[in-house]
Write a structure and sequence with these properties.
Tetracycline Repressor, domain 2; mainly alpha; DNA-binding (chains A, B); Arc Repressor Mutant, subunit A; DNA-binding transcription factor activity (chains A, B); transcription regulation (chains A, B); homodimer; Tet_transcr_reg_TetR-rel_C_sf (chains A, B); about 200 residues
Amino acid sequence: MSEQALTRRGRPGYDQRAILEVAVAAFIEFGYDATSMGVLATRLALSKSAIYHHFTSKDELLELALAEALDGLEGVLTEEKDEVGPAIDRLARVLRGAVRVLTDRLPYVTLLLRVRGNTDVERSALSRRRAFDRAVTALVTEARDEGSLRGDIDPRVVTRLLFGMVNSIAEWYRPEGPEDAAQLANDVLAVALDGLRVSAQE
Amino acid sequence: MSEQALTRRGRPGYDQRAILEVAVAAFIEFGYDATSMGVLATRLALSKSAIYHHFTSKDELLELALAEALDGLEGVLTEEKDEVGPAIDRLARVLRGAVRVLTDRLPYVTLLLRVRGNTDVERSALSRRRAFDRAVTALVTEARDEGSLRGDIDPRVVTRLLFGMVNSIAEWYRPEGPEDAAQLANDVLAVALDGLRVSAQE
């Protein structure tokens, strides 16, 4: 899917995606403001004009990087849009999908989580993120109204706590680490939906 | 408790704590590196030497700020150290206490959560934070071994997910906002221990 958006423009050595990956790693390490196109050129061993062959500006690099994360998250919602069945099951699949997007696109999601709204690109990304959160909150509300989700917590707080848990995974998850991404999604769902306590009935 | 550590040294206008509060707000807004003692002096309408009357360095300001958060969290563990009773109940009280420390000392905890280990002061704070996490993981393991906590999730992952949820509250909680801190602690415990799902038995 992301391969469709970022096409190879025929520059030998680095294609658009490879440059984007190096840029995102630098943005995460040094911060977006502190990473100049000159720094990126040095890291890539390319001239600045070679980078500008692929991207019109540093802002465009950030925009494409944030879109990688947001397209992934929005795609998870789109997959559920026409599904029927209990809202709690759709919510579970959205949570599982969000963990998958985070582990699959870790640097892009990490960058998204650091955005504070300092530029138009950042504000636009935050606006898309808020729309995603509102859609999840609507799903939480639907699951509550159908009687499958507890009704004593504000759905907006539920969404914030759920994504607090999911997003925190970006701080410690490493693809080469001992935690399997699918197992991690199972763990999140187990805590969020069924809780940690072993109930007396079991 | 924090009042014991930070005593008023008799300077009119600002005492140590008031200077620390302004410094922490600046560290959060601009970042620690980008906040010079000159910037702080301007914000406080004090001379730099007036600040140095209270603090030997910017590093000491950071150290005292991080200690506010860490003393609070460690205090929660100390309260439980000599308690008996099921480990799951002690874990629940530690979680509740951690939410209380976060809401009571919001700027200090926010600063702690941003620390990346760039200086000795930061590395020392991270080391204390890791010791706290290890103690919580030991409590999770104890609750699992007593049979009150589900055994199918690695206790280290449990601790990370729990504190991912708790720490994320710092991103949106505002003391003047609609969410009551005690209610928020109840919400966290409800999600973490009993889960969101309304089970068939209820």
